[in-house]
Write a structure and sequence with these properties.
alpha+beta, elongated, disordered N terminus
Length: 371
């Protein structure tokens, strides 16, 4: 926004600029309404008078023109536990990287008068944003630079004193002036409220409040008079969290599997409770390992000593059956892989409340256990 060339303003003169209120030793601000034919698209001009040193007759200036406009924007509110966590917004202007949406440059010097040494680029993306350029009067803009009574100075002086960019005062001035404009426009109509009555739509058209009706975008939230020209406020709600739904096939399959698992668990629990048959044997890997070591080798597991490389090994049925010990005086349990004849299975079936586990003679029978 810094320029080095001048332009004859039809309604503003140099002496008016020098008569800007405020001490000469402070930063001073003068708003200037710009002639539309020369500054088409601009909202207002501004002159920042730099502090004068030792009563010097020279006055250094920073001349700027500012552009503002109204247009559609998307406001995003992220909430957690019922409170607003963060608010962000962005302009809805579509694709602005190519084609007709490429941002255009608004020069602060008319082409007929000369070229600027630093032409400005505004965030305007015609014809998508803004929909309407704002014309700002110097009378309204004066309220953007109030006097801070406690410090007896102006707001522009306090902000420029911060030296945001000490080596480039015009960069600091452009940022501060833009901030003042945005702050003022944001406060315009601050006391406005949403119009209309909240629509009460319950299930099946009955009266009452229905949050699902609003969140699912089934209709308008408010009842308003359609004959008036209202500004549409569109709300798009997105809920993030863990939940089940039946809109697609995967959730339906998952719910079916979980339901079948629950039925299996309930059936097993009822069976154990009614029959009273249960056991706490082989609850740990160590117990299963001991059972396997006390079992006889089987041809069904041939070629598996150094590892298992084929899937059919895992498909073999396995049972825990009774086996007579070598001495013929007792019985122990072992793992049996593969198919077993029904007659042998009946003979070797485990009997409830019977002691299994043979030990050599003369050894205390502490390892025996009932199943």
């Amino acid at each position: 926004m810094h320029i080095t060339k001048t332009l004859k303003h039809p309604d503003f003169f140099y002496h008016q600029l020098l008569d800007t209120p405020g001490p000469a030793r402070d930063y001073r601000l003068r708003w200037i309404e710009l002639p539309e034919p020369f500054f088409e698209g601009s909202s207002i001009g501004a002159a920042v008078l730099l502090p004068k040193v030792d009563k010097s007759p020279e006055q250094d200036l920073i001349l700027c023109n500012l552009a503002a406009g109204w247009g559609p924007a998307s406001l995003t509110l992220h909430s957690r536990a019922g409170g607003i966590g963060s608010v962000s917004d962005r302009i809805r202007s579509g694709n602005i990287t190519s084609g007709p949406n490429v941002p255009i440059s608004l020069s602060n010097i008319p082409s007929a008068e000369g070229d600027s040494d630093t032409p400005d680029w505004f965030g305007f993306h015609y014809p998508y944003f803004p929909e309407r350029v704002i014309n700002i009067s110097d009378t309204w803009a004066q309220y953007l630079n109030p006097v801070v009574e406690n410090l007896n100075t102006s707001l522009i002086h306090l902000l420029m004193q911060q030296q945001i960019y000490p080596s480039y005062q015009y960069v600091s001035a452009s940022g501060i002036l833009s901030m003042l404009i945005v702050n003022g426009l944001a406060r315009t109509g601050w006391d406005s409220v949403l119009q209309g009555d909240v629509k009460t739509v319950g299930p099946n058209g009955a009266g009452g409040l229905d949050g699902n009706y609003w969140l699912s975008s089934k209709g308008d939230v408010f009842n308003v008079d359609p004959s008036q020209d209202w500004v549409t406020f569109r709300v798009e709600s997105t809920l993030k969290g863990y939940a089940y739904n039946t809109l697609t096939a995967p959730p339906r399959i998952a719910i079916a599997i979980l339901s079948a698992y629950c039925l299996l668990v309930i059936g097993h629990t009822l069976y154990c409770g009614i029959t009273g048959i249960s056991s706490n044997c082989w609850d740990t890997i160590a117990e299963v390992t001991a059972l396997a070591m006390n079992s006889q080798p089987t041809t069904a597991l041939r070629n598996t000593c150094a590892g298992i490389s084929e899937l059919h090994i895992f498909k073999l049925p396995v049972r825990v059956l009774v086996s007579n010990d070598e001495e013929g005086e007792g019985e122990h349990l072992e793992l049996v892989f593969g198919k077993v004849d029904k007659e042998k299975m009946k003979e070797r079936t485990i009997v409830a409340n019977r002691t299994y586990g043979t030990l050599p003679k003369g050894v205390k029978e502490e390892g025996k256990k009932k199943v």
